Amino acid sequence: MFLALQGPALVIISIIAFVLVIGVIILIHEGGHFFFAKKAGILCHEFSLGMGPVIWKKKIGETVFSIRAIPIGGFVSMAGEEVTSELVKKGDKIGVNIENDEIVEIILDEKKECQLRGEIVDVDLYGEHNETLFITLNDEIQNHHYNVKRDAFYVFEKNQRMQITPYDRSFESKSLWQRFITIFAGPMMNFVLAIFIYLIVSFATGVPNYDSNVVGDITAHYPADGVLEAGDKIITVNNEEITSWDDFSATLDELYKENIIDINMVVIRDGNELSIDLQTAVIINSIGISNLQLPEEYDSDIKGVRLGNVAIRYEDDDKKGKYPLKNGDILTGVKINDDEYRLDNGQTWSDIIEIFKSVHSVADVRFEYYSLQKNDDDIIDSNDYVLVNYDECGSIEPYTDEVLENQRIEKIQQIMGVSPETHFDFFGCIGQAFKNFWSDFTLIFRTLKLLIAPSDVRQVGVSDLSGFVGIYSLISSYIGAGFLALMMFVAMLSVNIGVMNLLPIPALDGGRIVFLGFELVTRKKPSKKVENIINNIFFILLMLLFVYVTFNDITRLFK
Questions:
Q1: Residue 300: DSSP 8-state
Q2: CA-CA distance, 245 to 228, in Å (whole number)?
Q3: Do residue 159 and residue 116 come from a single domain?
Q4: Domain CATH code at residue 414
Q5: What does the pLDDT look like over 474-530, one tens digit per residue?
Q6: What is the pTM of this model?
Q7: Which residue among 13, 109, 345, 517 is least crowded, i.e. fewest CB within 10 A of its CB?
Q8: Range of the domain at 346
Q9: In a domain, 549, yes or no
């Protein structure tokens, strides 16, 4: 587990974790492209982590490895991806340096000294059919014809250098399979990273032992926290015998169907039999309220159901949020669509369960509640209660059952915050790892369905998407959950980045694979100029989407 962090320390650790997480995922992705490009003999000019200005670089072999200032991406610059591979043409004035009667440097800096300067009369630096590379220069006196080394360099201003690109070293010269695997290798390595992490986590934690009735982990702030302990052996729940975790789950399910949340458990702890009373959690995800972390009770004549955590900000718009619904408030009524339900006649959370289980479509929710205010003496004064009527309380459109189902969330989840003990099972751990991978792999498609599938009520839109700022917020949250939880998030993020890159959108890896598919079917290579224009247009559109998503992320942070 991570240490509890707050304030500046948490921010610093979160930033470091964000940079490391994104850096590792990008490194693995671009490393896949780079490895298979080199294996195919493609010249790679640069391998970059990050975008924007270069803050560090080092040339190793043919490739410049660099780190750039903005840690939101990366790239491998492969020879032959540009529209034209030749930076010089007939009529250009250049300089050259020569060794052993071969040009080794083509000088494009007019101020740099060189052995010979002149105007290009003829040139071939591509050698598409394996011809000898050459340049013919006229120095205003005569023509000079020289062969060019296949690994010669362009030299720009400030002594910037780039190796020339003969056809046999370019991306387009390679077979269809070599080009495909070079493009696909980036997302593929994201998947390999995720499966590797899932395997580590599975083998580190084991798999749930559903044949046991012993408590494993306990989730903080849930009903079992501080009541049950890891290692407790569950004997009965509401007088029902429990011999396995499946028995325990089935019993809780039956109680849930009967809207019973007050339960008695008999457990064996350290050889002693204990009777424990607790209330199971009621989490109504679709409207963001629960009985978790209920505050201390105060003597009051107000009858109603006390709120625990509130995940959605409800507030009185007319009074500009003077009375936001919050933890500890007392619900006295709820209006769902046009139906009113009273909660001030001895109702409990069990009644709230029954209300929302009976509602099949929720379009609008409004609450009537008392907001409890403490005075300086920490005493509740009845004059400090504020009644907020239906028309004054802010409303939302709760998520539909389809949205909740696609996100694997029930409209009402009954949770105790306990999990079974785990045990080591070699094949079970492998199966669990691939099950987690498949779940995260399909997550993006479930989300896309909610985004684009026809729907009478569009409850998930582009404004709900998160970018790198949103990822930073999530990483900040996972830091407190422990190393393994953070690793699971990294795996999920790696899978999502891999799948996103495989979408058939120009400028992404999937778009480039579509062009390869076109070539496979037609037996003709698409125009490089047309392909680059399409890729650039979609790149600009993706950048605009990125700016929009980032703006929404920042707005959500302030909210």
A1: -
A2: 15
A3: yes
A4: 2.30.42.10
A5: 777 677 667 888 898 899 889 989 998 998 888 889 989 999 999 999 988 887 778
A6: 0.72
A7: 345
A8: 287-398
A9: yes
